[in-house]
Amino acid sequence: MASLRDAPRTPTSSLRDAARTTNGTSGEKIWLALEIGNTRLHWALFRGEILDNAWNTEYLPESIICQLAQSQTLDDLLLTISATQNKTREQAQEQTGGSSPPSPHLPTSSSLPPLLLASVVPSQTAIWETYPNVRVITLNEVPLKGMYPTLGIDRALALWGAGKTWGFPMLVIDAGTTLTFTAADANQCLVGGAILPGLGLQFATLGQKTGQLPLVEISKNASLPPRFALNTKEAIESGVIYTFLGGIKDFIQAWWNLFPNGKIAIKGGDRTLIINYLQVLYPEIATHLIVEPNLIFWGMREIIKLL
Ligand SMILES: Nc1ncnc2c1ncn2[C@@H]1O[C@H](COP(=O)(O)OP(=O)(O)OP(=O)(O)O)[C@@H](O)[C@H]1O
Ligand SMILES: CC(C)(CO)[C@@H](O)C(=O)NCCC(=O)O
Ligand SMILES: [K+]
After folding, report:
1. Angstrom distance (rounded) from CA 2 to CA 63
2. Is 178 annotated as a binding residue?
């Protein structure tokens, strides 16, 4: 889905101007996209409007971010990021079946690529301000209509990216730290949505806030637990997983009641697990889902065209 959809508009912004100084072999402008989630960082390297590579890392220490700002080349920068992240990189690959930080064999650039940043963690946003060429995306730059002021930028960008890519009406389900539903109608106007604790947070809360419940961890290939469980671990799994999936099904049905031809896209670190479960429990729903981890990057790419 990294292909171009609309013709790019005339570049006018400093971001795009700056990007010209970091050309790849193809002459495309190289830029980095960073989404700061509540659990970890999500990165993408773009060449023009083509997503070259996407990967996840842990939060970086402030000292490393300062070091990044001193990088002379893109290669240096990517090396600094990946040097801190071997463990996370493997986990990310395992989880997404996808890519790791690009190995530093990219064309050497004459300066650092611009960094387009979207964050739902203000304390993290602040420490990226040392990066020389950073641009923080704000909600008013997302052309969705009817947004409320405290809507998360990740929700707005993912919805915008999904709608511009596959069309509206669009419902985005983000199964990350939190589970969110975010929808827009055919006029690209926010319908609204919902926020609840994600799978990991539900298990963690039960483990942390009770006297007798263990911390349950679910592997991404786990099969469905018995519905009526006869031990504590499976009772927790049953309770969390069946209500989670039942909740997703219920929101999807409500969505289809409102918009019978409404589209649905799903993203987030738990998407694979959820899709696997939905295929078993509600195959009719599973077949209708667009599974796309990079929705926020598609949203950013759309925004950059407007800058
Ligand atoms: N390698 C991993 N590291 C962390 N979480 C992972 C990993 N693989 C899968 N997950 C799952 O992904 C969830 C976090 O999802 P994701 O990475 O989309 O979160 P995030 O984008 O940082 O948070 P947010 O919900 O704020 O966007 C965790 O609850 C966990 O269950
Ligand atoms: C809901 C989360 C945490 C999901 O990442 C984020 O989008 C956020 O902090 N949102 C602000 C509240 C809202 O979207 O209504
Ligand atoms: K908070």
Report:
1. 33
2. no
